[in-house]
Amino acid sequence: MRITNLTTQARIAQDLSKAQSEYADKQLQISSGRNYTRRSEEPSAAAEAGRLEQENERSVQWAENAGHGLSTSQITGARIDEIVDRMHRANELVVRANDGSLSTEDRRNLALEVDSILEDMAITANAKFNDSYLFAGTRSDQPAYEITRTDGRITAVNYNGNDDRKRVQIGDQTMVETSVLGSGSNGLFEDNSQGVDVFDHLIQFRDELNADQPPSDTTAAGLANDLDSAISHLVSNGVQQSRLRSLTEHYADKEQVINHRIGEIENLDVAQAITQLSQMEASFQASLQMAARINQLSIINFI
Fold first, then answer.
1. N or C terminus: fewer CB in 10 A for the chain?
2. pLDDT tens readout for residues 162-197
């Protein structure tokens, strides 16, 4: 009989110790607000949470890249819009300069306005954003264009950038261009393959006017082509902005979804946990009372 009582008491002591440990763990859960305090407690859940955290880190980086690309694209778009506006005016001056009734002084006054357009273009061509020259390709730590002047007037504009476009990573294997080249293939100011040469055509136009000559057919056609090219760049920039904006929103939404899922895995339902803690406490107290009665019976039987 004594052997049975001792065995029963040992089992009760083990159960009480286990219940006390579980009770302490539940208290720790509630104080931390997490479903588990050590990954070993819930290895499957912890592994899923870890995978989601890594995925979220990548998504946050892609979102930051897309956001930076969008900002650059927006600033670039604003500068291209200025170019379109000034080229519109230059083409209006071409029409005006072909008026046979203009005097020499009239044409020289038009030349002054063309000179002003040239100056505006030179400023725009060397525009910067975040200390980087927008139209210099990846050689963006120096001005995109070198301006040569004679007697204060622009006589030549030479490209200092390269033909490498800036790109940002927006996915594991996806890159997107965020820059517009000033010169080269599909260049904004100069593209020999398409007959685009904004500065050369403006300089030629100004010099013809100063020589009291109407714009040549070559100059007029060149400026019209330059305007069409600038408009095409503006449209492409709008498409690029739309894509980058959509990507930014996509990754922001994805981040929320992932964070919500991680919360479901890791965050504790405190109300439910408190209820469970109360139940565990009641069960623990009942076990203590049972152990006390068994101990009393064991003493009586021993006596």
1. C
2. 999 988 888 888 888 888 999 999 999 999 999 999
Each residue's pLDDT tens digit, 94-109: 999 999 999 999 999 9
Residue 132: beta bridge partners?
129
> What CA–CA distance (Å, rounded) separates 22 from 11?
16
Domain 53-252 in CATH 1.20.1330.10: yes
Asked if 280 and 286 count as a contact pair (C-beta separation under 8 A), the reply is no
CA separation for the pair 120, 183 (Å, rounded): 17
